[in-house]
Amino acid sequence: MKILVTVKRVTDYEAKLKIRSDATFVETDGVNMITNPFDEIAVEEALRLQEKHGGEVVVVSIGTADCAGQIRAALAMGADRGILVTTTDRLDCAAISRVLHKVCLDEKPDLILMGKQAIDDDSHQVSEMLAERLGYGQATQANQITIAGACAKVVREADGGLETIEVDLPCVVTTDLRLNEPRYASLPGIMKAKKKPLQEISATDLGVSLSPSVVIKHLEFPPKKKGGQMVPDVATLFAKLQNEAKVF
Q1: Residue 183 maps to a domain
Q2: Residue 193 burial by CB count (10 A; 0-12/13-18/19+): exposed, middle or buried?
Q3: Reported pTM
Q4: DSSP string covering 46-81, please?
Q5: What are the pLDDT digits (tens) for 74-84?
Q6: CB within 10 Å: which end of the chain, N or C, has fewer?
Q7: What angle do the packed helices 93-107 and 126-134 form, to 10 degrees?
Q8: Given the DSSP bridges, would you call strands 171-175 and 111-115 parallel, antiparallel or unpaired?
Q9: Is 212 helix (H, G, I), strand (E, B) or coil?
Q10: Residue 81: which of 188, 134, 5 has the closest Cα?
């Protein structure tokens, strides 16, 4: 079984971000960059499935040459090889899905694992678009994944509880927080990762459109919240909620 996992290079969730001078994106220069946490969970799940069923784990990332660091981190965890689709363009979800579609057509994976969303833009759209382009079934927000023959049984997190569905392979599955706890890369794993194959492909050579459907024209921080008020009694609180906040 071949499992393809996507990883994205994102800003550290603990970093204090600033907006670029042109107000089109956040400033990334000098900011610590990490692997998207949901993608780390996807890598871990791929490795666990590989340990049970055998096969190959291929890690794919799209972006500048710096994204090789995130691929190497996944290789250090135990993945077999990496593919870096290089581009300096800022791609939207539709363009990313077109690039991944082409990669999947070439690689022909049995299972595609993706983080349910990236913590930088929180779009939660690429997996759905990719599944539609491939014509594959999909299961999102996976809490548990079991492979049985040519079928994936997925327990997914839904509003109000858990939902169990079955999807024929090949399919696309996205991972949620409670699926697993990603392992730390061992020192031997880090050393081995340096010698594992990492193929670089220019996005322009894939023959797909990189033109975005969504363009960020202006980005700004939300207004600062005003301080709270102290009220002497419940009657005053009710009056303020009714007359000032207009919640009643």
Answers
A1: yes
A2: buried
A3: 0.86
A4: HHHHHHHH--EEEEEEEESGGGHHHHHHHHHHT--E
A5: 999 999 999 99
A6: C
A7: 40
A8: parallel
A9: coil
A10: 5
